[in-house]
Design a protein that fits this description.
With about 425 residues, the chain is of the alpha/beta class. Helices cover about 40% and strands about 15% of the residues. Bound molecules: ligand F0G.
């Protein structure tokens, strides 16, 4: 381990704590930021350094997280548990850009991470820290993707993992991953918010390491989405980054990473961040509109189950990044999410429903004149299409109650004859 050059600082009261210890909150209850030693970094990093590492065969350099290790966590490469992660593609589709109404529109596909979601970026750091701290058991509450990622990385590192999930509300792709990777998987008869409360208590009671994004090291890993996205754009800064929001760790991380690049003088402005929630799980969007603190929802409901969250832990952190660039927070209905998903899927890119809140949000913000047609916009697609195959089939069958399958591609059936098959093929 290199000399520790970071501390944990409370987002609420500013109190400082040692960098590496088992701690998720300040004594006052506030969440914590990893604060790096600015003097150790300023003038010592360059985009050239990160570009040179793209050609390296070293595991740490090949990871789209640890390639930026000075900005993530200053650990020695030998300590790192990596698959590697990141290195996700940036996609463009003319038909989708036309539907959204933005000419320069790209999609960073975080569903291309090893377990199919952006969570792997935070998890490689969380598990590395767990190992460094000597922890052999880890846990999280999850709407599915965090648990899939944690279960996989824990298995790689030889740790036992416990997963708390909302009963009946986790897409099958994700649930099957948690079981397959060997996590002890507990369905909680309640929503994600109940699972999140309980996992904190259970970790304290049993001395298990908590790997939700309340863990500040997870956030450090997720920052790399911003770094890699800028690298994909040859280090130019887009006008907007559009991100789906649930527990708000991801938008918090992307905002933190960008503000750190600005502070180190590596970029000269930060993009505007748009966080998009589902309207049935919209406490952050409501609070932003009202200019008030977040009031947790008693219950959250959306078919985008990944973001079915009423009491987001990281809203204060997320707000900092939104405010820094003059961005916004908005919400979209399930109908808008599923229409956007049909369009994104049909473009050949495809993603799970929560990701498509970003697509629907970009379209809504464009229609409302918040995003301009000529703005350079990057959306974050957070999870793979195959995470939730059931909703795809149900949408195209017109079997989702309360949802109009506006862009359905219905499954056809044919008798086993050429005549019938040709008729089924249509034109
Ligand atoms: N998109 C997907 C696919 C997600 O799985 C999540 C969160 C989000 C967006 C929202 O990100 O919470 O950082 O604002 N999934 C968590 C989980 C809650 O348990 O997998 P966020």
């Amino acid at each position: 381990m290199s000399t520790l050059s970071f501390t944990l600082v409370c987002v609420d009261c500013g109190a400082s704590h040692p960098g590496l210890e088992v701690r998720y909150r300040c004594a006052c209850g506030g969440t914590l930021d990893v604060v790096h030693d600015r003097a150790a970094l300023v003038g010592r990093l360059s985009f050239d350094l990160f570009d040179r590492r793209l050609a390296s065969k070293e595991p740490a350099d090949r990871s789209g997280v640890w390639r930026f290790r000075e900005l993530i966590l200053p650990l020695t490469p030998e300590a790192i548990v990596t698959k590697p992660e990141g290195n996700t593609n940036l996609y463009r589709s003319e038909s989708l850009a036309a539907w959204v109404g933005i000419d320069d529109l790209a999609w960073k596909h975080e569903g291309e991470n090893p377990t199919g979601s952006f969570k792997d970026r935070g998890m490689t750091v969380g598990i590395t820290v767990a190992k460094t701290l000597g922890m052999d058991r880890v846990a999280c509450a999850s709407t599915g993707n965090t648990s899939a990622s944690m279960a996989s990385y824990a298995a790689n590192a030889g740790m036992k993992s416990y997963v708390f999930i909302p009963e009946g509300k986790v897409a099958f792709g994700k649930l099957s991953q948690a079981l397959a990777y060997g996590a002890t998987t507990i369905q909680i008869a309640g929503g994600f918010d109940a699972a999140m409360r309980l996992v904190q208590e259970a970790c304290a009671a049993r001395g298990v390491y908590l790997l939700n994004s309340i863990n500040p090291f997870r956030i450090e890993g997720q920052k790399s989405i911003a770094f890699e996205l800028l690298q994909d754009l040859s280090w130019s800064v887009p006008d907007w980054i559009v991100i789906p929001g649930g527990n708000l760790g991801n938008s918090a991380a992307i905002g933190k990473g960008l503000m750190e690049l600005l502070d180190l003088g590596l970029i000269s402005r930060v993009p505007k961040i748009a966080v998009v929630q589902a309207s049935g799980a919209n406490p952050f969007a409501s609070a932003f509109k009202a200019g008030t603190p977040v009031v947790p929802l008693a219950s959250a409901e959306t078919r985008a189950t990944a973001i079915r969250i009423g009491d987001p832990i990281s809203w204060r952190k997320s707000l900092r990044g939104v405010t820094a660039g003059g961005g916004t927070v908005d919400e979209v209905t399930d109908q808008e999410i599923l229409d956007a998903k049909a369009k994104l899927d049909a473009s050949g890119i495809g993603a799970e429903p929560a990701s498509c809140a970003a697509v629907a949000g970009a379209r809504k913000l464009r229609a409302g004149g918040v995003i301009g047609r000529g703005d350079r916009v990057v959306g974050i697609l957070t999870g793979h299409l195959l995470k939730d195959p059931e909703i795809v089939v149900d949408y195209h069958r017109g079997a989702l109650s309360g949802i109009t399958s506006s862009f359905a591609n219905p499954l056809r059936r044919s008798e086993p004859t050429l005549k019938a098959v040709l008729a089924a093929m249509g034109d």
